[in-house]
Design brief:
Blueprint lengths: L1 E3 H6 L1 H9 L4 E5 L2 E6 L30 H7 L2
Parallel strand pairs: 1-2
Antiparallel strand pairs: 2-3
Length: 76
């Protein structure tokens, strides 16, 4: 479906519902398409544990106390 900007403003809720239902919605200005309205894919993908194994490491001395000069920088 293609709608002009004025119609999109007037019927925004209905147009959003149609886009969420999978319909391609094109918004036009002076009859020329300028953008499409489409839903953002949901982030509800199945997670796979362990994808980051081996991609990070903790450096030696990580748990050592910080120098006072570094602590002072954080407290500024």
């Amino acid at each position: 479906m293609q709608v002009n900007i004025h119609e999109a403003k007037t019927h925004f809720s209905q147009i959003v519902e149609r886009a969420l239902a999978g319909e391609e919605v094109v918004i036009a200005k002076n009859g020329h398409p300028i953008l499409t309205l489409q839903p953002i894919p949901s982030g509800n993908r199945e997670r796979k544990p362990g994808l980051s194994i081996g991609k990070g490491r903790i450096m030696d001395g990580f748990e050592s106390p910080l120098d006072d000069s570094i602590i002072d920088e954080f407290e500024k």
